[in-house]
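Internal ticket #5521
Category: modeling
Description: The requester needs a full-assembly model to guide mutagenesis choices. All entity lines are attached below as received. Residue total reported by intake: 478.
Assigned to: D.W.
Attached entities:
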Amino acid sequence: VVLCQTTHPGNIGASARAMKTMGLEQLVLVRPRHFPDADATARASGADDILARALVVDDLAEALVDCQLVLGTSARLRSVKLPQMTARDAGGRAVAAVRKEQRVALLFGQERAGLSNIEMDHCHALVHVPVNPEYGSLNLGAAVQILCYEVRMAMIDQGQATVAAMDSVMAAPQGMFDGFVGHLEKVLGQIGFLDSKQSITMMRRLRRLFQRAAPEEHEIHILRGILSAVEKTSGDARD
Amino acid sequence: VVLCQTTHPGNIGASARAMKTMGLEQLVLVRPRHFPDADATARASGADDILARALVVDDLAEALVDCQLVLGTSARLRSVKLPQMTARDAGGRAVAAVRKEQRVALLFGQERAGLSNIEMDHCHALVHVPVNPEYGSLNLGAAVQILCYEVRMAMIDQGQATVAAMDSVMAAPQGMFDGFVGHLEKVLGQIGFLDSKQSITMMRRLRRLFQRAAPEEHEIHILRGILSAVEKTSGDARD
């Protein structure tokens, strides 16, 4: 469970408790406003061991460096070009991935704003909790509770064969993926494909496109091999 | 939703919010320790209308007088002689009953002790949330959230129709995708990336990788734009 820029420490505590009741253990906090904090500890109740072992990082990429499946949660449907799934499907997908020894991140945005566009760029899919359209204000701790509950339900459910069969891809760790995206950006600059005005939008689109494919390690090697070949040609051109 | 002898008003507020996000409206409080209370209002966030309309009663029987199905929740399995079901089954049962115009109560006990034996005597069945056996301390608001979520899921569950409609990626026609793959192959040959021995295997791998991402039309245009930029650089190199 990765919480981004959490404002209220009470929600961090509630999330830790939600995780522990459902058997999840690793909490990562990206730039929490207040942590450690007495409110977090109070709301964690007996789950303060989760808080004690929580990782606090400055940067989302750092939090996800080992992860092979990143599921971002969103109370509302987003019009972004990412696969979307329900919390229930997310539980199944996460458990199927874990059974293949993959590391999975459930990503939660800031309380009020939710996940930013940049945070969503790190996700392989978005998870939607089907809230009341007239009042979708799901508390952060409650959202964590529902997702962790669905993970647990999937974990103890033996009827999830279809979900498990769905995906045989073993995605590369996110750090390796980021390395590829950085390399891609460099090469695209070099061949004059990125103009400075639109380069951020363009890189975001490309990142999402490749993120959807969730390349495996050997595929990342192939893609970087292509980039190196382009670099070489392009270098020759300039000589 | 009927809360029995709730100790912490914050949990009443959290329950109201949990209910409203999931589209439930009628809250009944049986002998709450503090209510109304500022903590309840604060935690309810925008769901204070649920609190304002909450019924406060002295006696559980009074709360249930209209109800035709009473489901009591329990974090742990009880050895009482009552049918037991999961939260998921309870959602389905509750919705099925409501569709037959029955009134259904979801009953929650006091935070620490849970439902007393006397309170359980009012129940038609007990609902079990499958918590971590080593730490089953589900917060009251979190338990309400999970049950209300399961009611909502059962309410909107029309098979997988909602999920299918949610997927926002609209893949390009396969002919357009094939055009991209052909272009890719040509450019990779041009920059010396494909050696003839392994080129079939390599192109198959790349095809699968991009196929997984299921690029949309405008994404195909971007990818082909990159290929054209590479071609141009590479042509320059040869001149």
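Resolution: model delivered.
Comment from assignee: Residues 217-238 of chain B form the longest helix (22 residues).
Ticket closed.
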